Amino acid sequence: MTGFTLGWEEWLALPELGLPAVKAKVDTGARTSALHAFAIEPFGPADKPMVRFGIHPNPDDPKLEIMCSAPLKDQREVTSSNGETEYRYVIETDIAIGGRSWPIEISLTDRSGMAYRMLLGRSALQDDVQVAPSASFQQPELSFDEYRAIPRSKWTKRVLRMAILTREPDNYSSKRLVTAAEARGHTMEVIDTSRCYMHIQGVGGEVHYDGRKLPHYDAIIPRIGASITNYGTAVVRQFEGMGTFCLTGSEGISVSRDKLHAHQVLARHRIGMPDTAFARSPKDSKNLINLVGDAPVILKLLESTQGKGVVLAETRKAADSVISAFRGLRADFLVQHFVKEASGEDIRCVVLGGKVVASMRRQGTPGDFRSNLHQGGTATAVKITRQERETALRAAKAMRLDFAGVDLLRSDNGPKVLEVNSSPGLEGIEKVTGQEIATRVIEHIEKKLGTRTVRAAARAR
User: What predicted TM-score, i.e. pTM, was given to this entire model?
Assistant: First the structure.
């Protein structure tokens, strides 16, 4: 025989799907090729549909489970060898065999009992390919050990299906994350956290939304608002229990959002912060103020965000009045030493994956000690010191946050952590520093899940 010869069974690879070794049956009697997959699930926008599926490449090793995704080319009626007809999702991907590579169409179907995970039909064979029906493995053999020998970080990327948990789908941060994910070939859905509901059971669990069970997501980006912290973290815990990678864990969200708990954690890890005192509507405000020094002091509601519920009391009399007001509201609050030398400035450091990826200096409006951009403050890019960098990293680590905004004050005694934010806004810091934080977030998720972009994979080959 001349040309390129295949036996009735051959080893091949589907590199774009992240499958370096698949044992296939070559069947010229079948027109179409089929990949025996499970958990087949379409997703993505109507103009760019995708399909996600799982495969156990080794029939004898059910623990070897690979999740794949690819652009959806078609859905067709296919008749199997036993005469059964079904509609199947069809993808197009490259096949690599014997040093050659070319694109083929593959239908996806659940045939978990089959000895061969792939059927290579005649339409997938190029003109010069011949099949020797009585011969096996005419091309170099591969091994399922390929999956264990290659580090996950080196695998070709599969498209990720991700979701953002937020009640603000139209804000800058949400839109940027969606754009960044789609630019790298992934799909990103935006889910209103408050409309999720959970099915909690002994085995497994589910999250439902708008009357339907949500599919499996590769990753979740929680952006839980302060008003629904408790419910939002419960939803995140549910996804965690289902094995979904969550960029921000439920524990980190809960701890950082509770200002008292957060300061106790910082103190436990010996991380610099303004002296802080706490009480539940105390009658003796004098002693409370004495604990942090003397006026001026900062009084802060435990549930304050974006500078709201934060008051500067410049005298003891003013502090007594504010404390009295808080007591009347039956509100929990902190009293903190006022770092006067900060002059209404703070430093926002964005920490991602154990690195400070961007930082900016925020300055409050004239006469306002608060530097929050939501309160009219301004921001400029800033170069932080080594000590400030280490403090920000330690604070994020103490809170168990892989992605966080750490706010620092520059005091005479070194950097002081003011707050650790589990859902840092992206607009101000991206525009001021020119850093594409949203893109770096998506790249970080890819790294965590052991995937790369198709572009990177092509360069590596």
Answer: 0.70
